[in-house]
Amino acid sequence: MRLTDANHAGLHWVEPVAGQRRHGTTKQQPRVRFRTVEAAALQPLATTPYEPATWKQVKLHRDCYVVFDPSDSSAPYHLVGETLWVRGGARRVELYTQDHHRVATHDRATPPGERLTTLTHLPPEKLPGLMLTRPVCRQQAAAIGPATTAVVEGLLTHRPEDRLRPAGRLLGLAQRFTSARLEAACHRALPFDDPAYLTIQRILEQDLDAEPRLESPPPAPARTFGRTAQDFARALLGGVSWT
């Protein structure tokens, strides 16, 4: 029997046959009871079709991620070390506690292997480092001033080491001190060709940024020699002793 024939036969049995019978419990015809009582209680069908899912127990690691098929998904940091349930569907990944309280929902990773992160899942002290990028550093430095911009640009373009994080720490000095003081400290360090994070931090801690600015370092003292070139030549020929 074809599916369409089976559906047609089923509807014929429900309506004119079973629907007309007197039900043994309700003492009513099922067809009449459905239309007068049950139909009003029905809810609309889901707008998306049901999707089968895979359930698995996983551990939330110290970095606030679980590993599942084969991507990493974040969960709230206060659950680190606990075993969670993960429900992996075709479109979403959901994380639940052992008592089935949902704590995280992510769209399925595309492509597989991508990290799925909700920033509120991470400890607050980890967010600045995670959000630190070169464009963000340049934007923050430009808002402080030209000297800070020059120092940060030098750190970001330095090779072969990656000095993105020192640039971020340097910009953080504006919170510890002030933006104006950081700009003054960078202005003081640049003429000495020593715009390192530790140098600028030391300038601020020792209040050197308040001293008069030096546009260039003091000249190096002139170097004099105790012997002339002629003396050196004679020493090579054995004419004089070189002491």
Write the layout of secondary structure elements.
Blueprint: H1 3-17, H2 30-38, E1 54-59, E2 65-68, E3 71-74, E4 83-88, E5 92-96, E6 102-107, E7 115-116, H3 127-130, H4 134-144, H5 146-156, H6 164-176, H7 179-189, H8 197-205, H9 229-237
Parallel strand pairs: 3-7
Antiparallel strand pairs: 1-4, 2-3, 4-5, 5-6
Helix pairs in contact: 4-5, 4-6, 5-6, 5-7, 6-7, 7-8
Strand content: 5-15%
Number of DSSP helical runs: 9
Q: Would you identify the regions where 5 or more consecutive residues have pLDDT less than 50?
A: none
- Structural class from helices and strands? alpha+beta
Order of helices and strands: HHEEEEEEEHHHHHHH
Distance between the termini: 117 Å
Global morphology = elongated
Largest sheet properties: 4 strands, antiparallel
Q: What is the mean pLDDT?
A: 85
* E-strand count: 7
Oligomer: single chain
Helix content: 25-40%
Strand order of the largest sheet: 1-4-5-6
Rg (CA only)? 38 Å
Walk me through what this model shows.
- The protein is of the alpha+beta class and 243 residues long.
- The chain has helices at 3-17, 30-38, 127-130, 134-144, 146-156, 164-176, 179-189, 197-205, 229-237, and strands at residues 54-59, 65-68, 71-74, 83-88, 92-96, 102-107, 115-116.
- The longest helix has 15 residues, at 3-17.
- The model has no long low-confidence stretch (mean pLDDT 85).
